Amino acid sequence: MARHLITSALPYINGIKHLGNMVGSMLPADVYARYLRQRGHDVLYICATDEHGTPAELAAKERGLPVAEFCAQAHDAQKAVYDGFALAFDYFGRSSSPQNVEITQHFARKLQENGFIEERAIRQVYSPTDGRFLPDRYVEGTCPHCGYDKARGDQCENCTRVLDPTDLIEPRSAISGSTDLEVRETKHLFLLQSKLQSEVMEWVARHDGVWPHLASSIAHKWLTEGLHDRAITRDLDWGVPVPADTWPELAAEGKVFYVWFDAPIEYLGATKEWSDLDPENRDWKSWWYEVDDQVRYTQFMAKDNVPFHTVMFPATELGIREPWKKVDFVKAFNWLTYYGGKFSTSQKRGVFTDQALEILPADYWRYFLIANAPESDDSSFTWEHFTATVNKDLADTLGNFVNRVLSFSKKRFGEEVPAGGRPGEAETRLGEQIAELLAEYEAQMEALQFRKAAAALRALWSAGNSYLEEKAPWLEIKTDKDGAALTLRTAMNLIHLYAVVSEPFVPSVSAAMRRAFALDGDTATWVTPDEARSLTAVPAGTPFTVPPVLFAKLTDDDLEAYKERFGGEAA
């Protein structure tokens, strides 16, 4: 089987993420990783907190903590939420790790050796009030392109255009709010992306027709506008230090690398963190170095991260002239909105992941978010839509099927799977239908089409309900007890099949469905077409129990309570 390397865009350290962040990178990566593991592939799913840069320093200052202590606490808090969502990372690292420092500095030295880094004197914003140069995110103001009045000096959150602090209209210090700003000369390192443009263009072109349109179109847009040389150092106290053996003057001034230079390198850094925990059995380079034909690398991210992963980081990788693995497939997502408006961490608008887990278990959120993933366009979260989806798909279609089959069988046949007669025409039709629907589900998962995969999974669940309605064992038992037993045994085998194939979406509920049957040596990780047709994985005589309610229906009172707490429309 193939080896699959999976990464999701690193969540930034300053605060718990909202549902849009979850569905835009980490959750679909987890669903895909779980699916591939079930199909027998060797999978390594790597992620980490992105800990450097201005916002980390500002957040630490606001909390009255040293930035290193703030980041350590925030990392643990984020990891706890991701554990709550059952994200099965192989490793969740930190971009402030010694491993990332080592690899980032190595990359910088190689770029220097190869003529792709240049030291330049630049004019930079200086705040006399704060007594320091202000890196890009320490400067806020009005975006010259869209007029957004809270744009940062590196990028406008509203229109996503990359900016320079000197581009901003009416700039102010993010530290003190002072508008008494000057422009002074200082030195920084620049990555000469302009010299790498043709190589990046050729590399991106090789993925035309392979990457989703969203990822390709953003990459080509940036390349059409032209790659500009970019400063990759900042005046900050917290970051990967510029190595003194290569740039002694800048190191003495305390320059650190720009967060967007070191953050993508943390994919490698986190893999080395993972490897260093068990060096006798793990080799991080076996996933990253000279492995183009051995490893398939898939990245997951929201659309605002696409330029950095499809243009800027590839330019870095190309410029070091070493055979590090580059991404094969970029799965990019549009925005999940809140009642049509933007989720906002800074403005605390929308539902945040820790709050979501306070309300309902993770599987409710996992299924809803993936079933409504913003793939082809933006999608909107509303409490009405969420409640309707939970009630129809999870409570009625899956949960009710499981409960009524097992409860009715226990009541009429006891606590073992009944035997009944031989399968007939209805069971043959059902088996063919299940095999066909399973193939569709597999095809959509392989294609990373998550909404379509969710629809195929929902169709699998619906097929069981249709079969149950057709056979009506509650009526059948009055005239044909063996026939009713056969119907229930077939339905129980469907429950086991659902437990196996639903695991990427609803892992906790899938485990509960599987535990319902006391099957010795039940190690099934997937279902073959023949197994889907025969539906005999759970034989007659197998003891079973009726699990607690898998998904509770949400009431009108629940809906009103959610809207009252979080708001029922975008701000």
TrEMBL record:
For the ligand (Zn(2+)), the binding residues are: C143, C146, C156, C159
In which residues does the motif 'HIGH' region occur? 11-21
UniProt protein name: Methionine--tRNA ligase
UniProt record similarity statement: Belongs to the class-I aminoacyl-tRNA synthetase family. MetG type 1 subfamily.
Q: Where is the Methionyl/Leucyl tRNA synthetase domain?
A: 4-406
| Gene Ontology MF, one | ATP binding
The domain of life for this entry's organism is Bacteria
Could you tell me where this protein is found in the cell? Cytoplasm
The record's Gene Ontology biological-process terms are: methionyl-tRNA aminoacylation
What Enzyme Commission number(s) appear in the record? 6.1.1.10
Positions of ATP binding: T345
Q: Which residues form the Methionyl-tRNA synthetase anticodon-binding domain?
A: 417-569
Motif interval(s): 'KMSKS' region? 342-346
Q: What organism is recorded for this protein?
A: Streptomyces zinciresistens K42
**Matches recorded under NCBIfam families:** metG
Q: Which first-to-last residue range defines the signal peptide?
A: none
User: Which key words are in the record?
Assistant: Aminoacyl-tRNA synthetase, ATP-binding, Cytoplasm, Ligase, Metal-binding, Nucleotide-binding, Protein biosynthesis, Zinc
Please give the SUPFAM superfamilies that the UniProt record associates with this protein.
Anticodon-binding domain of a subclass of class I aminoacyl-tRNA synthetases (SSF47323), Methionyl-tRNA synthetase (MetRS), Zn-domain (SSF57770), Nucleotidylyl transferase (SSF52374)
Q: Which PANTHER family would you find in this protein's record? A: METHIONINE--TRNA LIGASE, METHIONINE--TRNA LIGASE, CYTOPLASMIC
